[in-house]
Queue: 2 jobs
Job 1
Amino acid sequence: MARALITGCSTGFGRATAIELKKRGYEVVATARRPETLADIDADARLALDVTDDASVAAAVAAAGSIDVLVNNAGIGLAGPVEVVPVAEVRRLFETNVFGPLRMMQAVLPQMRARRAGAIVNLSSVSGKIAAPLSGLYAASKYALEAMSEALHIEAGHFGIRTIVIEPGYFRTSFSQSHRDFGVDAPPYDELAVIMEKVSGQLGRDAAPGPEVVATAIADALEQDGPPWRVPVGEDAKMIIGTRAQMDDAAFEKTMREVVNLEW
């Protein structure tokens, strides 16, 4: 029976993935910074884990034992213009979204390599492929995760370890609780923030599906032999990423401006 450690299980994609993998017969190690939030999850182990802390990562991995699947889900959000967002906030973002998954991968890869088997699932985003206005710094953290994953796909694949990158579009989760905004409610970028809020409505985000769709995509990818290692999830992600792959920079920008009527 495969054993999966999932980060950030208190809410959203992490919680839904823990539930889905347990249904499919995995031994689930659910983790969160506050383990009391995991009390109602059917898991084989519930552990405290702060991916920004070296000692916490080492302790959780040691307590988890043999890990066949690592799902790097824990993450935070950040919005604001590149000009305005404090550098300290960007460092905080990267500690969770980039260095957190890196710590976890470095912690579990040696045992997977020794067994010549295992899977690393990294939760990226459509923002890991396309940087929207006011989301450039969050996108930068996901671009970095995509780059590490692309290298790992070759590096660890040699030892029988799979790398899977999940690229969700917009889904209804409590992600906004860990999301911070800067410079969007005052000049010179407040007008752009209003425009982008309208764009969100045009993309149908109010009717977005719940996180279970992403959890299903993760479980399905793990169960398939040799799936595409990048997996867009959601109709918006498939459309945006697919369109971007077919166009050069100028054509893509022109098309997206026309689709969402972006005048800025």
Job 2
Amino acid sequence: MSRYRGPRLRIIRRLGDLPGFTSKTTERTYPPGQHGAGKAGKKSSLSEYGIRLQEKQKLRYNYGLSERQLFSYVKEARRLPGATGSILLQLLEMRLDSIVFRLGMAPTIPSARQLITHGGLKVNGKKVSIPSFQCKPKDIIETKSQSTKDMVKKSMEGIPREVPSHLEFDKDNVKGNVLSIISREDVGLQINELLIVEFYSRR
């Protein structure tokens, strides 16, 4: 699922707003499917397992992860000191593709991943083509060439995105700085990470 190619608006209608997944919007507030319109405005009848599954799916679709990748992040978050749910979100938000998206250099995380894999970016002066690269404070992210810089500037037009407090962005030079580890308040996804930790608690 790391390369999901299906209809994105159906996912948005089922799971809610996923800013990293797509920049498209829809006026339909009810779930997709034959009986979706009849559920508009009604309280969800999902089981406890269904609610936890839905929260986990939000994370997978927003960050473009496979089940194996997400479980690996969960296991890593368990090993690190602190609240597992918050650590999990930090690990995902400090990925290079997430940072590039949050800086506004790409409209979505999939497009940020494409920019990275095509070798268009440098981190601390060195080319990095791995989207899952973990960024650290004091890292500097910039375009590799003038043509890439022009392309990114053009794609940034019409993307009014607020840069979170753990990042700094020089729009003229298309250069971003990582100031610190992201805080829970700056995570741009409406999600209950505790339910995701509970979903994986038996694995």
